Amino acid sequence: MSDHSSPSSRDAAGSPGSPLVVRWVEAHNDRDLDGMIACATEEVEFHPLRLTLRQRPADFYVGHDGLRLWFEDLRRSETQHQLRVGEIRQNGADEVVLTGSVEMPASSTVAEFYGIYDIPDGLIVRAHHWISDRRTMEDLGLVQPLE
Fold it and tell me: Tens of pLDDT along 93-140?
């Protein structure tokens, strides 16, 4: 298993989606397709980070077959990025927001990372990843302002 930062003390304690999102990120970092599939519904909609100019025509991947296609695309792109968990918050009954960083080991690049996960029935039905700063995400209404 790869090195993962633990969710912070501001983690959504007791949130049913938090452990699932951490498993999703761990599987992502380990390049464990079966692990990601185990976290998602058959109809999952995945919007991965756009880290290269060579992207598929679609901006997202659908279903377990879509996750398989994304893994193939990721392998071909030779992107070795890793996601680091900073904080996980429950946002309503079915949505979990992850903040953290994305690291590109080859270049030592680190950027802020956000993930929003819809988890209505115990599995991820939508995962959307962005590289952005907190202020922009707040201004877009994608995350709640810090209190």
Answer: 899 999 899 888 777 778 888 899 999 999 999 999 988 777 777 777
Walk across the sheet containing 95-104 and list its strands. 61-62, 40-47, 124-131, 109-118, 95-104, 82-91
All structural domains of the chain, each given as residue ranges with its CATH number in brackets, are: 18-48+59-139 (3.10.450.50)
Would you call 103 helix, strand, or coil by DSSP? strand
Structure tokens at 13: 């304690």
pTM summary value: 0.80
* Phi, psi angles (nearest 5°) of residue 92: 85, -175
Find, among 53, 120, 50, the residue nearest to 61 by Cα.
Answer: 50
Tokens of 18: 């938090």
Output the 3-class SS for 2-37. CCCCCCCCCCCCCCCCHHHHHHHHHHHHHCCHHHHH
Distance between CA atoms of 56 and 135, rounded to whole angstroms?
29
